[in-house]
Specification:
heterotrimer; B: 244 residues; mainly beta; Porin; 8-stranded antiparallel β-barrel; 4-stranded antiparallel sheet; 1 helix; elongated; C: mainly beta; Collagenase (Catalytic Domain); Immunoglobulin-like; 5-stranded mixed sheet; 4 helices; 35% strand
Chain lengths: 187, 244, 332
């Protein structure tokens, strides 16, 4: 008889969230980000920081489209965790990047020189490129509250789908034009 | 065994004894009612006769109740559970072929054993989905086996009626075995039953065919169910019998 | 047709360039060409607690709440594990010091993160060298028995993070609502849901069946393997496997909910740790904006399908598995 092997999530290749988050609504992510850009990862480099008490990974990406902020030809940002030598540091919830990947990044400058992703992973919208069709798809749907009152997020809603990159960019620009949203009640 | 289960077991046994006692009581009453010796209706089965039979039985279904798939609420939003969807479960009635062998201890008293096989359908009605998944009735087919034994008391008729119809009562117990689809899981239990019926014989020969029809109640303890209590379903059957 | 199969609570497999996932979801680490389940191999797993408190929570209160949270997981009867409080330390919860530390940290760069768990792993054999958990001082904390309005219950958040400490990832058994400026949980049926209940809520101190199934899957006793079973199968759309679908198994007899995900390119899923008996299955997309809390959304995750129930009742055997369940979903 065969054996059933329950599946697991690989920490390295797949960022898994082991973090308790306060999710932001899309307009808050837009308003709270200093830099918003569609970019392609060109370099990933781990480094010791904080007196060798922490490992961060500095990700450098080639900017393909800038939406907000002063954006150069490339941008660099940091994410918690990384591998140096035989040892790997993983913060569950922090995203992992590979060369060649594309994403729309929502970055905050913070107090350090190197910006970080808004909300650890909330400001990361990965872009899936279909070489055959040339289409770029932003997988994670955008969540925007339509009013002030609470509205349930219904899974399977026909109105919420993965967006083509152009349509996603339009959502970003539209959100930028709106007033910044209020802070979430959960804070 | 917990006190509750012990009490329940006692009640079950008392009910079984009561059913058998009632049957025996009726036998005794019949014996007393008998007036002066009557001419029997043809050759009644002599002690040592055998009777075999088979046919279809209708076994009633039962309701398993409702259950909701609930998520625990964030008390900031509400206090009642959030219901993701609702289920209503039941087991359908089923036609179940059976076979039976009886031995006449006396012209009126027989003991019999039988086996019955049925394929009721377990249904779950899925509805009220919070995200508008279409309602569905999910099903699986159970393989239901009952191996039982009974005592049967036949009543004699007045000679003048010349009737070939023989009423009877029965009572007994059995072993219930139910297999889920693809036989992944088996659930067993004990079954008690009691009822009444009639036999109609073709002719008076010592070896003869006849029809049998009966109906009664089947009381189950165990088997496929959501509750630990007793389950009562009606059962009725017709069969072709052969006496020899 | 189903077959009896032996459920093995251990090493999982991630296909898709190593992106596996699983609803209760287990963490794994790449060792060479294979992936090993991230789990403690030696017990008791020792941990230290930072000897510094914050406003409203002293170091001793913090340690007491942490101890209760560890005990909650250790009390799972179908799992073999133990921990040991090794003492207070001045060290903060950061990797690279060879000790597992739980404590408070100010992380303004993670201002929407209540708490987080990190691992330091030896990639040669996948062994956990240390695991650290920080609680963000950006937020107000409470250890009161019934919770404090406006402050997050430390024990509840600790139970979630310690689930990660033991190797669990996130569960998708939850519903949320949008408010202007944010999103909050309406309800959840797993402590490992990635979004916390509101401040003052203490419900997540108690494990749910999904959490227990996940922990038992990793550290299961022999009795667990004999008593519980699994369901496996595929979710497809137009004949193609759906990746990243959330599959929920519900037992109408016990009313327990356990979830799983399709993790492979052919839409394969496995849900283990299930009581024997009949189940209904329900499939839904993770289109509520939280994909990255579970897995890398670039790896072919599909959210464009409708929620649906499986039309057949699925029966889980004792100590085995029901396989080859085929669920076909339709595009939105």
């Amino acid at each position: 008889m065969g054996r059933v092997l329950p599946f697991v999530v690989c920490l390295l290749a797949a960022p898994v969230s082991a973090t308790v988050l306060i999710p932001a609504e899309f307009r808050e992510i837009v308003a709270g980000s200093d830099i918003i850009a569609h970019a392609r990862v060109v370099d990933v480099r781990a480094e010791w920081v904080d007196g060798r008490r922490q490992i961060n990974t500095v990700v450098t990406a080639e900017v393909l489209t800038g939406y907000k902020g002063k954006v150069e030809r490339t941008i660099s940002f940091k994410v918690p965790g990384g591998q140096i030598g035989r040892y790997r540091s993983v913060m569950v919830g922090a995203p992992v990047f590979r060369r060649g990947e594309e994403a729309v990044l929502f970055l905050q400058s913070g107090s350090s020189e190197t910006p970080h992703i808004f909300g650890v992973n909330q400001g990361l919208y990965r872009v899936r490129y279909n070489r055959r069709t040339g289409r770029r798809l932003v997988v994670s749907p955008v969540l925007i509250a339509s009013g002030e009152g609470p509205e349930r997020v219904v899974r399977g809603s026909a109105s919420r789908r993965s967006l083509e990159l152009d349509a996603f960019g339009a959502q970003v620009r539209a959100a930028m034009a709106l007033p910044a949203a209020r802070q979430s009640e959960s804070r | 065994m917990s006190l509750a289960r012990g009490v329940a077991a006692t009640v079950r046994h008392a009910a079984c004894v009561g059913a058998l006692g009632g049957t025996l009581g009726m036998m005794a009453a019949d014996a007393q009612i008998r007036s002066p010796p009557q001419r029997p209706i043809g050759p009644t089965p002599r002690a040592g006769s055998w009777e075999i039979g088979g046919g279809p039985a209708f076994v009633g279904g039962y309701d398993l109740g409702s259950a909701s798939a609930d998520l625990s609420r964030n008390s900031t939003t509400d206090t009642n559970p959030f219901t993701l969807f609702v289920t209503d479960s039941n087991v359908t009635p089923a036609w179940s072929p059976f076979g039976r062998v009886a031995y006449y201890v006396s012209p009126k008293l027989a003991v019999e054993g039988g086996v019955r096989f049925g394929r009721p359908v377990y249904q779950i009605d899925l509805s009220g989905d919070a995200e508008s998944a279409p309602d569905v009735v999910a099903e699986e087919t159970l393989d239901q086996y009952l191996f039982d034994a009974s005592v049967v008391w036949h009543f004699s008729r007045p000679p003048a009626s010349r009737s070939r119809i023989v009423p009877f009562v029965y009572g007994g117990a059995g072993y219930l075995r139910e297999l889920h689809e693809a036989q992944e899981l088996v659930e067993t239990g004990i079954e008690y039953h009691a009822g009444a019926g009639i036999k109609y014989w073709f002719g008076n020969a010592p070896r003869r065919f006849g029809f049998r029809g009966d109906g009664g109640l089947s009381v189950r303890d165990g088997g496929f169910d959501f509750d630990e209590g007793l389950r009562i379903v009606p059962v009725a059957g017709v069969s072709l019998v052969f006496l020899f | 047709m189903t077959r009896r199969q032996r459920v093995v609570a251990a090493v999982a497999l991630i296909v898709l360039a190593g992106v596996p996932l699983s609803a209760y979801l287990k963490l794994g680490s790449r060792v060479g060409a294979r992936t090993v389940t991230l789990q403690w191999r030696d017990f008791p797993a020792r941990y230290f607690v930072t000897d510094a408190g914050v406003d409203g929570v002293s170091a001793q209160q913090f340690q007491t709440a942490i101890a209760r949270a560890f005990s909650t997981w250790e009390a799972v009867e179908t799992a073999n594990l133990s921990t040991e409080f090794a003492g207070f330390t001045a060290a903060t919860p950061r990797v690279g010091d060879s000790i597992s530390v739980l404590g408070f940290l100010g992380r303004s760069d993670q201002s929407r993160t209540l708490a987080a768990t990190s691992f330091f792993i030896d990639t040669v054999d996948g062994r956990i060298l240390e695991s650290d958990i920080y609680f963000n001082t950006t937020f107000g904390w409470s250890t009161s028995e019934s919770g404090t309005s406006g402050r997050f219950d430390l024990e509840s958040i600790a139970v979630h993070e310690i689930g990660h400490f033991f190797g669990l990832s996130h569960s998708a058994l939850g519903e949320t609502e949008l408010l202007s400026g944010g999103r909050r949980v309406i309800a959840a049926e797993s402590v490992m849901f990635p979004i916390a209940f509101s401040a003052g809520n203490t419900a997540d101190r108690t494990l749910k069946p999904d959490d227990i199934a996940g922990l038992s899957d990793i550290y299961g006793t022999s009795a667990f393997s004999r008593q519980f079973g699994s369901i496996s199968g595929r979710v497809t759309k137009n004949g193609t496997g759906v990746i990243g679908a959330h599959v929920i198994a519900f037992n109408p007899r016990t009313t327990r909910l356990v979830g799983g995900f399709t993790l492979t390119s052919d839409g394969g899923f496995v849900i283990a740790g299930l009581d024997p008996g009949p189940y209904v299955l329900r499939v839904e997309p993770l289109d509520d904006g939280d994909i990255e809390s579970f897995f890398d959304s670039s790896f072919g995750v599909d959210v464009d399908f409708n929620v649906k129930f499986h039309e057949r009742i699925v029966v889980v055997p004792r100590g085995g598995g029901t396989s080859n369940i085929q669920i076909r979903v339709t595009p939105k």
